Amino acid sequence: MASGCACGYDTRLRAYGVMAWYTFTHLPPIPAAVVTENGTVLFTYNDVVMGKYYFQKYGLMDYGSILGMGSYFGIDFMSYTLRIYEDTAAHYLGFDAVPQDNASAMAIIKQELMPIKVDPTPKGDVVVVSNDFAQGFYNAVKFYSWILGPASEQFRLKPDLITNETVIKDLVAYFTWSFMIALQGYTNGFPYMPGLIEPTANVTYASWITLFTIMLVVMPMAGYVVLKLMDYWNEPRLNIQLPPPNDAQRLTLLAFLLAGIALGIQGLLGAYTMHLYVDTSLYGINLVPILPFNVSRALHYTLAVLWIAVTWIAFSFFVFPYFGLNITRRQVLTVLVIGVLVSVGTLLGIWTSYLQLIPSPWWFIIGAQGRDVTTQGTLWLILITAMLGYVSYLWNKASKTAPDVLKPFAKILSIAIAGTAAGAFIGALPIIQPWPDFQVDEYFRWMTIHAFVEGFWPPIVVTVIVVLLVVAGLIPPKLGVVVSGMDATLEIITGMIGTAHHYYFNGLPTFWMYVGAVMSTLEAIPLGFVIIYVILLWRRGEVKTEFQKTLLTYALVAGIGGGIGVVAFGAGLINLPLLNYYLHDAQTTMAHAHLAFPLAYGLPSILMWVVAFTLSGGFDDKDLRYMRWAAIIIGIGFYLQALLSLVPLGVLQLIYELKYGYWFIKTIITPSGHPGFWELPLADEFVWLRMIGDLVAAFGFAIVIFGMLFRFRRALGKPVLKALGIANV
Questions:
Q1: pTM value?
Q2: 57-93 CB burial, b ≥16 within 10 A, e <16
Q3: Chain centre distance of CA 268
Q4: What is the C-alpha to C-alpha distance for residues 716 and 708, in angstroms, rounded to an integer?
């Protein structure tokens, strides 16, 4: 059986390798030069590559986006630049504004923006463009010189962010190239620009295939899952009495407390970042010069990744002795110190890099790569890879020393953490400087993200929850192994190949649309495993102790809450190609992220804190009741965020996108100086409504964080307090 699995895995690798090879040999071309009819060179290949370099160096992907990839707030530089060119052509044709409803006029404008001819040369194609096109380029340079220069603080960026005109010209070359490939059909009709770019037939076909797949595959698979649950329903269960943790295990509580503090700071940064949507100051205090939008946003999501990673590493060391591994205090303290140093270095690197305090090429290595979500400097990602690799190695050892009932779970965790480490390393590539090609960059960036949130993270949280349920005597060990094994297999396969649902519209080959659409549907299947059993278990009346009730509460809120965030707000709302086309990187994407990530990954991580404090004697039954309410309150808070603010904002964006085009839905002002989307009174009201959900979720987090603070000394124990020199503090 092992041999058959290896062959199947090898076959999948070869298939993915062929698809990767085809992808990298069919990328949108970057011309050797773009010149006017009279021979004036507007920009060259090197200018486009340098434009991408500066786009990352100045943190513009954490402010806005390009080809719909990046932040949800700042302008999409690709479609916004196209609008500048569109305005220029319309004015040259004698129109006061872009005549979107005049099909013949729009056809002329589109012709003005298309190449007049393409001359192949040994160094690449030379694209010849019209004089109107050239004027659009000059207008764009002038506009971005203002937005990114003297007006940058108004747009929530570092004051006088870019004052070098050569840098601006390279950026505009990069933005111009991005809309040129869209006009030439490389992006499946993305973004929507009335009269210029519309969705292709592929978008519709892929959507229908996805719906067909749901009926053909998902429903029978769900039935299979229920049957497997019934097969193991009456298997014997265990009630394992774990001994109190030793001094080395108790030291990990320091990491959990630090992770809780990091969570609190992350929440404050998130609230501040959203506040910048509607105002440049925080209730009269101007923090933009030291904490501009791109910095606060990058720190916000990076802190989430870091505190979750620290929690998982620390919890591993907390439970290793229960899996037969001897852990010393020196090991725990070493890992804790390294983890803190890497985390602080990562955060300071992003902050100083985006404030332009780190020179080239070091900004990419020890600062911020400038890539949305995987923006951490390559040095820190390599160190994170090493730490995760070490923990994976220890879990592999644990799979041999653990009691027989726990060995399969240790093996799954070893594989999942190794996959996470591999994802972090891929995110560090190419180590020294950015990838020169946008599509290559996006290909690897999304592989890193999916290695985390859709490939290897789900098996980690599901396996941990299942092990806790097995130890608490709530589910049979054999059922737990089946659930964890099926989840890991399906998540890793579908999650990694399903990465392609992010490749729809950025210029990669069209076949990824079909692969991604189908696989994204299958990703949702394993989410129901634990949920179904837990609900049935509760109805059997076998949940008696406060500890058991706490485990099931967190499992239900994380499973149902996070599952709906993934399935309904992810696969259902934004991954279906036709919906993805119009809602690409809109506030509906943030709704998906703010439901799936904190509930599916954050809440199980908080459960690890609660379990560690309970086993250490810090939390008693009364405390556990508070912890259960905290989980429910957190879930309610994030759903209030989504339903009162983020989803209505996404719907409003869709309405205005259909009216004006994709370029408008992320604007503060238009190229002509009129108020943009974020200046709409209704948009402003929806942003403020998010505060309700923020405050509710913050209250839930506060219960957990302050609970750990109040019970920290009791959980740590006198011997450990004395060893740390804080017994009398």
A1: 0.94
A2: bbbbbbbbbbbbbbbbbbbbbbbbbbbbbbbbbbbee
A3: 19
A4: 11
